[in-house]
Design brief:
It contains 14 helices and 14 strands. Bound molecules: iron/sulfur cluster. The site of iron/sulfur cluster (SF4) has 11 residues, from loops.
């Protein structure tokens, strides 16, 4: 059953590490976006009933009740089993929770990133560990206990000791799902750009080097597994039964439709993506399409799952060379008819995946 993604790209601040199409906008842009988004959803011809709905962004927990209700009225909701809302800590209130529950939201993803105040302030975040603790308690008390916590390895000021502090909170809060990312240095985030330019802003000189970032990631990954989380995707860990049904659709190459700024869609054969600037999104009557090479995608996307993939006979043949190369390097392994990443490969997965393109 397919999924639906809706982007709400507005935030109360632009975090220094963020490379998403999101940020702070004025009321005119927000109002215009609201109209365009609702029009896009209402114009969609639904050929199927969605199973999952994911509000991402941005900070969709800042959406008004009116907009949330209008969107839920525009999406066929009868078959939904998982409805996720991304939340910035500090936006969870009893009133907001009541609204989210009324609208059918049953999973909350908290963009915590770190539990260490010094690290959070450096990135522009305003919450602290106590706020996260209070909000998780509030969510659980109201019955919204399917919670994800996002964590990042590689933030400015981060040390092995400060990662320990964050992991201590993860253990005691015991949310059923954790996403662990590595900060990517690219020109799409202010911090990444500053590092590439050799500048001093946003704590750029205090970003851990590659070696320490790898240690931070390893430490966190090992601790999460020790706390009883199942590492099921490169960046995702869950208690049994709490894997993200929506995100699994991306990795299993199941269809989904995306609405809003920079939203992507996949109908099983063709990929579409909306504009990633407001100008492009407001103007594009029809998003650009790209046909996908299903064998490449099977490897490029499917190998993100730690269970790996079951290549077809033709795929074994076509990708024999890169498979042999990474097997002998100890980065890929066979398990029966399946092919999967080995634990050390997780840190260099992008390099591995690249070799399955244009073969
Ligand atoms: S990290 Fe989240 S809250 Fe921060 S700017 Fe990006 S989307 Fe907004």
């Amino acid at each position: 059953m397919p999924g639906v993604y809706i982007s709400y790209p507005f935030c109360s601040q632009k975090c220094s590490f963020c490379n998403f199409a999101s940020g702070v906008s004025g009321p005119d842009t927000i109002a215009r976006y609201r109209c365009a988004l609702l029009a896009e959803i209402r114009a969609h011809e639904w050929a199927w009933q969605p199973e999952t709905l994911y509000f991402g962004g941005g900070t969709p927990s800042l959406m008004t009740g009116e907009l949330l209700r209008e969107m839920m009225a525009a999406v066929p909701c009868e078959g939904l089993t998982e409805v996720t809302l991304e939340c910035a800590p500090g936006t969870v209130t009893p009133e907001a929770i009541a609204l989210w529950k009324e609208c059918g939201i049953n999973r909350v993803s908290l963009g915590v990133q770190s539990f260490v105040t010094k690290e959070l302030r450096q990135t522009g975040r305003r919450h602290d560990a106590q706020i996260v603790e209070r909000e998780i308690e509030m969510l659980r008390h109201s019955g919204l206990s399917n919670i994800n916590i996002d964590l990042i390895a590689g933030l400015p000021e981060q040390t092995l000791a400060s990662m320990d502090e964050s992991l201590g909170w993860i253990e005691s809060l015991s949310a059923p799902h954790v996403s662990l990312y590595i900060f990517e240095i690219d020109e799409d985030s202010r911090l990444g750009n500053e590092i590439l330019l050799g500048g001093q802003r946003y704590g750029a000189p205090r970003v851990p080097n590659d070696e320490l970032t790898a240690q931070l990631y390893e430490k966190a990954s090992q601790a999460l597994r020790g706390f009883g989380y199942h590492h099921y995707e490169i960046s995702n860990y869950a208690h049994a039964g709490f894997e993200s049904k929506h995100n699994l659709k991306y990795w299993l190459l199941e269809p989904y439709v995306g609405f809003g700024l920079d939203a992507h869609s996949f109908d099983g054969h063709v990929r579409y993506s909306n504009g990633d600037t407001f100008e492009a999104y407001f103007q594009s009557a029809k998003p650009p399409q790209t046909t996908s090479d299903s064998a490449e995608e099977h490897f490029f996307v499917g190998l993100r799952l730690l269970d790996g993939i079951e290549p077809t006979p033709l795929e074994w043949q076509r990708f024999a060379e890169p498979i042999a190369k990474w097997e002998s390097a100890g980065m890929l392994e066979r398990a029966g008819t399946r092919l999967r990443l080995t634990p050390p490969a997780v840190l260099v997965s992008n390099e591995i995946f690249q070799e399955f393109l244009n073969v």
